[in-house]
Amino acid sequence: MEMNYKNDRKANNTAKNNYVGAPYNFVSLNNRVLKAYNNIGELPSHNEINDEYLSGEIKYTIKALSPVFISNGKKEKEADFFKNVNGEYAIPGSTVRGLIRSNTQILGLGAIGGDIDNNTFMYRGLSKGVLKSKYNEILGVKPVQAHTSNESKTISVAKNVKTGYIAKENNKYYLYKTKVDNINDNLGKMNYYPFQKARGLEDVLPPDNKKPFFLKINYEIKGERRVESVSNYDDKNAERQGYIVRSGYMYGKKTMYIIPEIDISNKSEIPEEDILSFKHDYELKEKQLRGYESYYSLPVKDIKPVFYIEYNGRFYFGFTPYLRLFYDYSINNGIPEAHKDATIIDFTKSMFGFSNDILSYKSRIFFEDALLIGNPKFSEPKEYILATPKPSSYMDYLKQRNDNKIYTYNIEDFKIRGIKQYWFKNKIVKSELKKSKLTSTIRPIDIGSVYKGIIRFKNLTKIELGLLLWSIKLESNCNQNIGMAKAYGYGKININVDNLSVYDYEKMYSLDRLCLEPYKDETSNINLYIEQYKSYLESNIGREAIEISSIKDFITMKSITPKDELTRYMNVIEYQYRKKSLQDVSSFNNNEQKVIEKDTVDINEDTMADMMLKLHNKYNKYKKD
Fold first, then answer.
1. Which of 56, 77, 258, 324 falls between 20 and 30 A from 247, CA-CA?
2. Sign of dihedral through CA atoms 310, 314, 318, 320?
3. What is d(CA 448, CA 450) in angstroms, rounded to the nearest whole number?
4. Is the pTM of this model over 0.70?
5. Which residues, other chains included, contact 12 with Cβ-Cβ below 8 Å and sequence gap of 6+?
6. Counting beta carbons within 10 angstroms of the beta carbon of residue 422, is it exposed (0 to 12), middle (13 to 18) or buried (19 or more)?
7. How confident is the model at residue 206, as a pLDDT?
C-alpha cells in the first residue's frame, strides 16, 4: 500500500493553516543590563561580618497546583520521582535554585550571554522555503535519471557531496577516500551510485530494510553509473566491492546508494572542531534517533561509510547525502551587546556566583531540598514525547519583523526573542500514546502535594535580599512551573515564603548571655525588602518596575492562563505550512492575536513533538502495509 502523504498534507493544511502557537513563549530582553557592582573588588567577602550585610534563612512552601514530576536523573525512559539520600521524596535544591536563579535574571535585568553556549546551529533545507535555494546551491542538488535494470526515473542527487569511510583510530577520527574519485564530469564530485532497483537486490537486503542500514556488498555497473546487480560480500575477488547504504524509508522513498570500495592508502584526519560540531548536533537530535543510534552515531570500532562535503573551510559529514550545514552566524550575533560583556557584574552573578575566563566568585545563596510533606499520592503513569523545543526553529526563537523578510541564522542582523518560559494550562493535556522509541513514561505526584524547603543566604545587601524574595514569591497573583512535561500542564506550583529570619549579630556575639537562637524574625518586612529593590530598580531604569518590558512579559506569563487551544503544539501540517511567527506575550496580555505573515517556511528536524509522533506513526503504518 503506497502512502499518499502529499494529499493528506493538503487536506490538513486547508483545515488548520491559520493556527500558530506553542506551549511556551519568550520574555523579551532589555538592551540594558542592570549593574550590581562596578568590579569584583566591591563584592562582599563571604567570611566578613558586617552590619551592612544580611545573613539568615528563608523557609518556604511549594504547593502543587497540577501534578508535578521531578526526575531522579536516570536516563531510563521510566525514571522515578526524585528521592534524596535519605530516601525521601523531594524537589532537589538544585532544581529550586535553577528556578529562582532564572527568575532573578529576569527581575534583576541580568545578562544572559554567559548562560548561552555560543553555538552555530545546523540546518537541512530540503522543503520549499527560505533555506532551500542556498542549501541546494551548496550541495549541488540536481535532478538526474535514476537508472535501474528495469526503469528510468528522475531523482535528486547532491553533486557536490562525496562519499568515503570514517574510522576511529587512537582517539582520533579519519576519513578514508574511495577508489572511485568521481563518476563523470556531468555529476560533479559525486563518487557514489544512487539506485532503486537492481538484479539480486532482494537477496542482499536485511529483513527490516526500511530502517537505515549499511551493508558490505559486491556490485556491477553498466555504462558509467547504472547499478546493474548486487550480490553478497563473499567473493573478495569480485571486480567491484563496496557498501550499499539506505538512510531511511520516509514517505516511501526507496533510493539507496552504492559506496565504492575503500582506498586504505588514502586517509586524512578529520579536524577536531568538525568532530565536536557533529557530536553537538547529534546530541540535539538524539531523542529522535532512538533505535537508529548505530547508524547515525560516530564509529567506535568498525569503519563506516560516510557522506561529506568541504565548504567554507569546514568539513561536513554525516550518514545521508543531504548533509546538515552550519548557518552563517552563531547565537551570539543575535544577543544585545550589553548581554555579551563578561565584565559586567549583575545581580545574578553577585548573588549566585559565577566563573568565567576573566573572573570568578562563589554563591552567597544555598538551597536545601524541598521535602514532600506526608505520603506521596501518585497520578496514573502517562506516556509523553518530552521533546525539547530547539533554538534553531527560527520562526519561534528569532524576532520576525514587519519587513517581508524571514529572519534565520543566515541573516546578519537577526535578534533572539528572549528567555523561554512555559504557559500554564487549564487542564492536563491527555495522552493516549503507547510506549515507543519517542516516548517517556512519567509518574507524577498528584495535585495538592506540599513541599517545604529552606534557602540560606550570606552577606546580602538589603537590595539583593529584596530581589531574592521577589524572585521566590513573585507578585501575589503569580504562580510558577517546575519539573518535566510543563508543555502538557504539569508542574504548576505556588511558592509562599513562610518565614524570613536574619542573623542578629549583636545578640549572637553578646558577652552578657548565651544565645541559642541568634535570629531576628523579619517575616513582617518581606514586602518592605521587595519594595526597596523595586525602588532601586526604578531609580536606575527610570520606569516603574512592573512596566519594564521584560518584567511585564514575565509577570504576564506567570499570572494568566490562556485558552489551551492557543498554547498547544502545532501539528506537522500546521508547522510546515505556517505563514506567521509566534505571537508576542503582549498579545496575550491585550487579548489580541498579533501575527506577522511570512512566506512558507522550511520544515526540518526542529519541529515539535506532534510532528515527530506523526512521522513516526506514518512510518510504522507504512511498514505494516
1. 77
2. negative
3. 6
4. yes
5. 571, 573, 574
6. buried
7. 87
